[in-house]
Amino acid sequence: MSALRLLARREALLIAALIAVALVLLAIVRLGSEIAEDGTSGFDNWLIVALRQPGNLGVPIGPAWLQTAMIDITTLGGVTALTLLVMASSGFLVTARRYRHAALLVAATISGTIMGQTLKLAFARARPQLVPHLVDIATLSYPSGHALNSAIVYLTLGAMLARTEPGRRTRLYIMAVAIALTLLIGCSRVYIGVHWPTDVLAGWAVGGSWALLWWAIAVRMSRPRRVAGVSG
User: Fold this and answer.
1) Which candidate, 29, 81, 151, 156, has a CA 20 to 30 Å from the CA of 55?
2) Is residue 97 part of a domain?
3) What's the pLDDT at 209?
4) Which helix (H) or strand (E) element contains residue 52?
């Protein structure tokens, strides 16, 4: 049991560190946002403009392939991609007779999506109009649904998968990939001009904490079965 507890603490610490960073950044930026006359912070405006070519805000910085890559990456956090991923993953868990994990994954995703949409309606923040958007979008901005939902899905899946691996390096690699995907998707939203940076930070914070909650539930629910297997 000591080894299992150590493994759980390490996984929790990895996810909690991401949440802590996101929350601290969010608190700092939101404080500046509250005193800004137009409801945005200087950081929001600066970063979006900094990611565009000087004198031509319609073109993002970097080579042409980077723009295409960012548009492709942002789709990984979209409703279609995440829905297919959750369906495929939950189907796999069901075939592996891990019914509880499948139910937890679906519950975490659906409840997180509802929470994100509720927050959007509550804050009703408009999309940034400083630069042209690289993709068409007309929904509300705060928090970023792509950042929030990708954090929930990828971090929850990563944590569940990591718990099945005995090797520390393998667990770290799995979580690193999950975190990297979450970060890349969020950054792509700012790069293509459809979100304020604080939208993404809020999405990471909410989505990450939600993933942590459901991961903790999964750990607690799996303990009785493991104990019973050892004693039998």
Assistant:
1) 29
2) yes
3) 81
4) strand 52-53
Task: Characterize the bridge pairing of strands 52-53 and 56-60.
Answer: antiparallel
3-state SS, residue 54: coil
Task: Report in angstroms the alpha-carbon separations of 231 from 1, 116, 137, 220, 224.
Answer: 12, 42, 55, 18, 11
**Domain count within the chain:** 1
Fill in the DSSP letter of residue 126. Answer: P
**Predicted pLDDT at 12:** 62
Sign of the Cα torsion 155, 210, 186, 121 reads positive
Whether pTM > 0.90 for this model: the answer is: no
Check if the beta carbon of residue 202 is closer than 8 Å to that of residue 144. yes
What's at 216, amino acid-wise?
Answer: A
- The residues, any chain, with a CB within 8 Å of residue 25's CB and separated by 6 or more, are 201
Q: How far apart are CA 151 and CA 79, in angstroms?
A: 13
3-class DSSP assignment, residue 46: helix
E strand or H helix at 57: strand 56-60
Low-confidence residues in the chain, pLDDT < 70:
1-41, 219-232
Q: What is the pLDDT of residue 205?
A: 82
Domain that holds residue 223: 2-52+68-231
CA dist 182 and 15 (Å) reads 12
Q: What is the pLDDT of residues 127-175, one digit of tens each?
A: 888 888 888 887 877 888 899 999 999 998 888 887 777 788 888 998 8
Q: Is residue 14 part of a domain?
A: yes
**Tokens standing for 105?**
């994954």
- Adjacent-strand bridge partners of 60: 52
